[in-house]
TrEMBL record:
<dbReference type="InterPro" id="IPR013022">
    <property type="entry name" value="Xyl_isomerase-like_TIM-brl"/>
</dbReference>
<dbReference type="InterPro" id="IPR036237">
    <property type="entry name" value="Xyl_isomerase-like_sf"/>
</dbReference>
<feature type="domain" description="Xylose isomerase-like TIM barrel">
    <location>
        <begin position="27"/>
        <end position="287"/>
    </location>
</feature>
<dbReference type="InterPro" id="IPR050312">
    <property type="entry name" value="IolE/XylAMocC-like"/>
</dbReference>
<protein>
    <submittedName>
        <fullName>TIM barrel protein</fullName>
    </submittedName>
</protein>
<dbReference type="Pfam" id="PF01261">
    <property type="entry name" value="AP_endonuc_2"/>
</dbReference>
Length: 301
């Protein structure tokens, strides 16, 4: 049965920019939720000191949770080989961080969608860079998870593999037991794509998932796809919302994942309005997981 983790979406400024919240304070909040783990971010201020890593792992485990995943953002589509090699070394450092935290999954991205970059060249550069990291990942018992992403906060351009066809081409280019997909249904909306179509095309490669939800402030999905699909900057028609109250069809999503035998981690990227919203999202997901992933021996009862 899938397990639930949480990502501190509402507290990123405090944990990564101004230091107004400590990780221990986030752990205390998260302990009040019905979750199994915490997704970490490589940019947490307190993670800059490597000597802190084992202590944070102990703190989380002492609260009855684990750290299954690490979120990070390599840029593998830069035309300069030395830049890409530097990003590969960064990714290896994040793999080491994942291992030190007791995690099994470390995110990778393709890189930025630079205007001069052709689809063929971008897929090649990203695939080669990810493949260069895979032996190191295997040595540390870590699986690299490629997310259908939108855009890193510090990037000039959106994700190269943002659109469904490019993402699927990149996934198909990498066949390795230490590589899989981190599926994010909400990001498909930002790309102007159908989240369920994307899932059906890659569901046999999905090993982890980001759970969130979006809702339309105005207009229709067709308006979104026509006017803002794949554009630079967040889609103005879409806003974060409580999971289960937005555009994502979690019954269809979980049904497809169950059909492929999915039993990985689902990390909640929600709670932008605070811990109470996050708690409601956890309750919704627990209910849906129970409906679609019954315990072994109960499916035919």
């Amino acid at each position: 049965m899938p397990r639930l983790a949480a990502f501190p979406k509402a507290y990123m400024q405090a944990l990564c920019k101004d230091g107004s919240m400590t990780l221990s304070q986030w752990f205390d909040l998260a302990e009040t939720l019905d979750i199994d783990g915490l997704e970490f971010y490589a940019g947490f201020l307190e993670m800059r000191d490597e000597s802190n890593w084992p202590g944070f792992r102990r703190q989380v485990e002492d609260r009855g949770m684990v750290i299954p995943m690490l979120c990070c953002s390599p840029d593998f589509t830069h035309p300069d080989r030395s830049f890409r090699e530097s990003e590969i070394e960064k990714q290896k450092g994040w793999i080491r961080m994942t291992h030190a935290l007791g995690g099994r999954y470390c995110r990778v991205l393709s890189g930025q969608r630079r205007p001069e970059l052709s689809t063929t060249e971008g897929v090649r550069l990203a695939a080669e860079s990810i493949q260069s990291c895979l032996p190191f990942a295997a040595e540390h018992d870590v699986t690299l998870i490629l997310e259908n992403h939108y855009k890193d906060d510090f990037w000039e351009y959106p994700e190269f593999a943002q659109k469904i066809d490019v993402f699927c081409d990149l996934v198909a280019a990498i066949d390795d037991p230490n590589f899989g997909v981190n599926y994010d249904p909400s990001n498909a909306f930002l790309a102007g794509d159908d989240p369920l179509e994307l899932l059906r095309r890659v569901s046999d490669r999905v090993v982890t998932m980001h759970a969130s939800d979006r809702y339309l402030l105005e207009g229709t999905l067709e308006d979104l796809r026509r006017e803002e699909g794949g554009s630079v900057g967040y889609a103005k028609r879409l806003s974060h919302g409580e999971i289960g109250k937005g555009l994502n069809d979690y019954d269809a999503i979980f049904s497809e994942l169950h059909s492929k035998g999915f039993d990985g981690w689902i990390s909640i990227e929600d709670g932008v309005e605070g811990i109470d919203q996050l708690r409601r999202s956890v309750l919704f997901l627990r209910r849906k997981i129970a409906e679609h992933f019954p315990p072994a021996g109960f499916e035919d009862a």
